[in-house]
Amino acid sequence: MKNARNLLAALLIFFSFNAGAQNTAKPINFIIPFSAGSASDVITRILLEQVTTNTGQRFVFDNKPAAGGNIGTAAIARAEPDGFTMGTSTSGPLAINKILYPDLSYDPEKDFQPIALIAILPNVVVASSTLNINTLAELNDYLRKNPDVAYGSVGNGSSQHLAGAYYEQLLGVKMTHIPYRVTANLVTDLVAGRAPVSFQLLPNVVGQIKAGNIKPLAVASNKRLAALPNVPTAAEAGVKGYESAAWFAIVAPKGTPKAVVDRLNKDIVKASADPNVRARFTELGAEPQASSPEELQRYINSEIKKWTDIIKKGGITLEKS
After folding, report:
1. With contact defined as beta carbons under 8 Å apart, do 203 and 183 qualify?
2. pLDDT in the model for residue 99
3. Residues ≥6 apart with Cβ < 8 Å to 260
4. How many CA atoms lie within 13 A of 139 on its CB side?
């Protein structure tokens, strides 16, 4: 009976995505495990608004922020796999948290049907203008000569924290991690030089970069950011293999019908290619993506393996920097 209901749901959604049924499509409940206005929320809405424009398919957004995204992501995993509930999750709940939370109530590698990787937001190595450092090579020299230089993040286990820990390991230096509860306080201390280095996501510091208070030294990506075309990648600046980013993916409960997954993936790929969507992502410092479900599954698996090694080597826990 359950399989029959799922098949019926798959057929309903499949036909609802076609032009002849655009106005009668049943809305898809779309869970976002972070607050309204967060990067996850903004990126998701930009993309799915374009899907709605292209297909008529409607989405009802349900923000469930708590526990580093675990609560909302677990809600996606527990939903009925009928194609009418899915959501966006990120590198934290879908990779990092499997390592940091021993009692995680879901398995990122087994409890979801991947649909598409939609955006990658690379970390950017930045320094306070108070340091009078202009290149990554100069920063590296400074870190080697000055142990325990402070760097800030939005908390233990965050993308920024792990990006810093990974950088320490690659460079063979020792820094002091300072976790902040409020991003604005972190940025204030970064500008003032109290925590003069950070491994930030561009939206958090773009205003201060434009003001000249913070200098972007390198992007932790294999290619330059369109929003910072004159800033080299870490590899270009001499630190090979340094790639770190927050990323965003659309997933559904395990068992969601293949027809639903394939159709939605197709429409996400089309929406991701829209020039307006790409321009708005670029403004956020995000790189638009449009993976297949299979590519997303491999990406999740590889990210868990990569960060497991880094977290264990650094002795990182939610309580320990």
Report:
1. no
2. 95
3. 9, 10, 13, 14, 83, 252
4. 28
